[in-house]
Amino acid sequence: MEFSGFRVIKEALTSHKGWKALWRDPAPQPDYDFVIVGGGGHGLATAYNLAKTYQKSRIAVLEKGWLGSGNIGRNTTIIRSNYLLPGNQPFYELSMKLWERQEQDLNFNSMVSQRGIINLFHTDAQRDAYRRRGNAMHLTGAGGTLLNQSDLRKLVPFLNFDNARFPIKGGLLQQRAGTARHDGVAWGYARAADKLGVDIIQNCEVTGFCIKKGKLLGVETTRGYIGAKKVGVSVAGSSSRIMAKAGIRLPIETHVLQAFVSEGLKPTIPNVITFGAGHFYVSQSDKGGLVFGGDIDGYNSYAQRGNLPVVEEVIESGMALMPMIGRAKLLRSWGGQVDMSMDGSPIIDKTHIDGLYFNGGWCYGGFKAVPAAGITFAHLLATDTPHDTAAAYRFDRFNRGALIDENGAGAQPNLH
Ligand SMILES: Cc1cc2nc3c(=O)[nH]c(=O)nc-3n(C[C@H](O)[C@H](O)[C@H](O)COP(=O)(O)OP(=O)(O)OC[C@H]3O[C@@H](n4cnc5c(N)ncnc54)[C@H](O)[C@@H]3O)c2cc1C
């Protein structure tokens, strides 16, 4: 079933009886060529690309809960490619380019909105760092504009420009950045993958791996044993728990990241804004809610709910940046599990076990990476060689000391 304006009108005139389920609900087969563990954005995009770009078949995605129950349905929907380092910038720019045509590729309205992101700076040193970042962005075509205070006063007049502690001096704007409807992204990939024959199997938790003489033969699941030639693990915040079942210890810590949404308001915030003097970022959803968040909860946890000190810190930062937020009522808050790597950058690589591949360590920024992670992880699974733009995301960088530390925070996962 293709989506189109014509289809919407036709269904409206026939009591919406013609819509079909977006994907099948197949029983697991005894074995597959490719098994992807995790039905989040990354797992679904990988399965889609295996089938579409690399023309592979006999592919299954195994999801322990329902599709979209993980971080893909919990994030704050920001997409951007405003990175500095050569290991990161081309990868995220590839992702941005894929976002720009994603709705056409998938024939699904995932509400990609290039409303721009502004990273505010509050000191001269910060301005120099953003100028450097902006120049790096221009090298890959990501684009970027340095705004001064008077530009910002016109664009986002509600900010607290004259706060004596955190005066806003300007910001780095990436106009091509923005937001996309997160669960729409999962549904779009699921529908497109299913159409290409991928079996999406929900309520199917992987509980172990069958490995003989260093070779992976299949996975144990709550729905029985499933044989597989190759298994790609894409389970975000559950990475260290799953990989431990294969005897692999990852350079990853898991933390909770919380997010918040206010009651619906009239259009107020035209783009995504990040505070440069505290942990706070905000955008406005198409329903009108202010969607905002801040830092991770500082302790390790696999919970999907956070703690009150972070709530206090995020709200305080919001008040410092834009005091008008104090007039809005908070509607909801929630948490997700984020897999924080030691240098803040992800891992897409083969493991030492023949047939077992890993994609994770996305910290709090893996939503924007979904299209590029999908294609690069599928490339690795299909060809056994790393994709050019993901070649830096290998395990051995931690042995070689070749870290990709965008924040310069050192081996401190909770600070990235
Ligand atoms: C509050 C919050 C805000 C965020 N905001 C942003 C943002 O604005 N921009 C951005 O780029 N990123 C953001 N992120 C990060 C982003 O959401 C994640 O990096 C990304 O979604 C992770 O990839 P995924 O979609 O595949 O993960 P998930 O959706 O978590 O997928 C992993 C899946 O694996 C499944 N699974 C786990 N264990 C098993 C098992 N044993 N067997 C089978 N399945 C299993 C889980 O149920 C889950 O569905 C945010 C995260 C959070 C929590």
TrEMBL record:
InterPro entries assigned: FAD-dep_OxRdtase (IPR006076), FAD/NAD-bd_sf (IPR036188), SoxB (IPR006278)
Keywords from the UniProt entry: Cytoplasm, Nucleotide-binding, Oxidoreductase
Pfam families: DAO
Any one Gene Ontology molecular-function term assigned to this protein's record: sarcosine oxidase activity
Lineage per the UniProt record: Bacteria, Pseudomonadati, Pseudomonadota, Alphaproteobacteria, Sneathiellales
Keyword tRNA processing carried by entry: no
Biological process (GO), any one: tetrahydrofolate metabolic process
Locations listed in the record: Cytoplasm
Protein known as: Sarcosine oxidase subunit beta family protein
Gene3D superfamilies registered for this protein in UniProt: D-Amino Acid Oxidase, subunit A, domain 2, FAD/NAD(P)-binding domain
